[in-house]
Amino acid sequence: MDDGLAKDKSDQGTDKEELLINLDLLRTGFSPQPDGQLIMDGYLSAYTEMNKFFQILGTLFQVVSSDVHSKVKILREYRGAEEGDHYHSIQSMITYEKEHDLLINKNRPSGARTLLRLHRALEFVTEFLAILIDGSMEGSFGKNVSELYSCTLGKFHGMLLRTTFSGALLLIPRRETIINRLTNGSAEAEKVAYAEMPYVIEMMKAMYDHTQKLYEENGLLDLP
Fold this sequence. Notes:
The chain is an all-alpha fold. It has helices spanning 3-18, 23-29, 40-54, 60-80, 90-99, 111-132, 141-151, 159-169, 175-182, 187-217. The chain is globular and about 50 Å long.
């Protein structure tokens, strides 16, 4: 291998390591399989990685991060339990819980319901990342994020929470501050983020669309 090419690849690997989030893990974890299967292990690993992003957004998102952690933990426990094979994919989980009358159960959180909450948040964070890498949004970043919340995740929150969260998002750290935290202040890591983030966002959108269609086909989008 050419020494210059090897060095370039090595440098790029180092730049990726500067990033707070493993973009490769997000891209692969949120990628539907060729046969359309939505693999649970990959989804949860990607979501765990993405949760690092919530943790750099300020105090407001600490509650979100904690909620994501608890929901991922529930689904991991189901995946590791005796019936874990039924939670191999989102499709197999829905089939299993429908057949065993587990979608609404007072004794255990439904896996389908738990993942639905993560799914709703995925729409918000996917569009958030798109705004984050859009340099034209700098002056109105907080306003755009607040409006994004209102038309995505906010639709599923009560009036008090929605009003409080929407207002607080106006005070979110500046776009450049978040990017600096995401890249650990590395200019080279920032270049990698801008180059690769569009592909990550594309995969996240594909995962969201596939999951949305699956829940819609099974009449589960309004699962209480």
